[in-house]
Each structure stands twice: as structure tokens, then as C-alpha cells.
Design goal:
Mean pLDDT: 91
Shape: elongated
Low-confidence stretches: none
Order of helices and strands: EEEEEEEE
Largest sheet: 5 strands, mixed
Distance between the termini: 51 Å
Structural class: mainly beta
Strand content: over 45%
Radius of gyration: 16 Å
Number of helices: 0
Strand order of the largest sheet: 2-8-7-4-5
């Protein structure tokens, strides 16, 4: 079993990262598209786990983070990793959505490397 790469000697594993969401304001039941791109530092190949996390607003206004896997692989140093993922904001039997600002973060091997915010509106709001 290969361990996930970590930033060593004070040099972060990710040299550059971007995370964007479109649209950035939706109603409960709609979906959005996440776009991410990152560059792994030059050097040796690295085992990376790329995830996005959403700090879901709960009924009382507090938040709870849920992680979603984007990629888990070994890549050569200097590699660019990117892609898109559609995320549905529809209520599920296991998750109910509440209006408010939801912070969305991009994580590589558990380290936050990018973030954006989505405004979720109640169904029926303009």
C-alpha cells in the first residue's frame, strides 16, 4: 500500500489550484457544475486523492462538511489534474438542504487548496 504524498521541506504538494462553481446561486432542487484544476509540484511522482468538500448549512444554521471523491491516483511530478463534476442540490432521503451560503473546498490529500461559495436559495425564491 502506497502512502499519499505530503508536502515536505515546507514545499506544498500542490503548486497551483483553482475551483469554480457555475452558477454560484441556485435554488434547492437545482444542480451546479464544479470545475477544478491543479498542478502538482515538480519532482517525484505522487499518490494524490482529490476531493471536494461542502460545508452544508443545517437546520439550526450551523454547518457540517461532507467530502466527495474526484480522483485517487499516482501522477508524475508537474502533472496537471482537472475536470468537472455536476452536483445536485435536490433533497435526498439521507440529506435535506437548507438555504444559505455553502462553502465548497478543494482538497488534495486532506489539505485545502482552493475554495468558493455557493448561495443556496429556498425552493420558490426568486
Amino acid at each position: 500500500m502506497t502512502a499519499y504524498a505530503a508536502g515536505d521541506d515546507g514545499e506544498p504538494l500542490v503548486a497551483e489550484a483553482t475551483l469554480a462553481i457555475a452558477p454560484d446561486s441556485v435554488r434547492i432542487g437545482d444542480s451546479t457544475e464544479l470545475r477544478y484544476e491543479l498542478t502538482i509540484r515538480e519532482g517525484e511522482s505522487a499518490k494524490v486523492r482529490v476531493e471536494y468538500g461542502i460545508d452544508f448549512v443545517k437546520a439550526g444554521g450551523r454547518t457540517s462538511r461532507k467530502l466527495f471523491l474526484l480522483s485517487d491516483k499516482t501522477v508524475p511530478g508537474g502533472s496537471r489534474i482537472g475536470g468537472t463534476r455536476r452536483h445536485s442540490w435536490a433533497d435526498l432521503s439521507t440529506r435535506r438542504h437548507y438555504p444559505g451560503e455553502h462553502c465548497i473546498v478543494l482538497l488534495v490529500n486532506g489539505v485545502e487548496v482552493g475554495e468558493t461559495v455557493l448561495l443556496l436559495q429556498a425552493d420558490g425564491e426568486a
